[in-house]
Amino acid sequence: MPLLLLIFLFVAIPVTEFAILYRLAAHGIGLPATIALVLLTGVLGATLAKQQGLQTLTRIRQEMAGGKMPGDALFDGALILVAGAVLITPGILTDAFGFSLLIPPLRAIVKRLIKAWAARNVRVATSFSGPPGGATMGEPHRGRDEIIDAEVIETRVERG
After folding, report:
1. Residue 48 and residue 18: Cα distance in Å, rounded?
2. Which of 47, 58, 79, 127 has its CA 20 to 30 A from that of 87?
3. How far apart, in whole angstroms, are the C-alpha atoms of residue 40 and residue 83?
């Protein structure tokens, strides 16, 4: 299954993108307009991804300064990075996907879907070392346990 997915991602999507761009150039808006569209979406996408990425970085810093783990903001940052990467590649489908990741409500849906998939398919085991909270002998318990190691034990792939 993973091999088929990789073949799809690296062969079928670029071929489909090329076919769409060809049809758009030859039978739609013309070659100059198609090239302009590809360049415009690349520049606009990179600009939006940079802007949202910097906002997310500020949010991460604020949350860390407040003593919170910025898990949600880090997830947003990863999705914005993916959006920027697909937006600089030429294509209509990849641009639509990339722009959808830059719209916060749509990005929230993608986050929920990825989290649900991970909850169903990934099991994590952790191990701890030393006294609770990383305290040494004679120090009080600080209420936090330190994770030393985590690894994926099992993943399940649903076959439809």
Report:
1. 24
2. 58
3. 15
Nearest one of 156, 148, 146, 150 to 124, comparing CA atoms: 150
Give 68-113 pLDDT, tens digit per residue.
Answer: 888 889 989 999 999 999 888 888 889 999 999 999 999 999 999 9
Distance CA 79, CA 102 (A): 8
The amino acid present at 159, given as its one-letter code, is R
Q: What is the CA radius of gyration of the chain?
A: 22
Alpha helices in the chain (DSSP H): 2-7, 13-27, 31-65, 71-87, 92-101, 104-121
Please state the length of the chain. 160
The pTM (predicted TM-score) of the whole model is 0.69
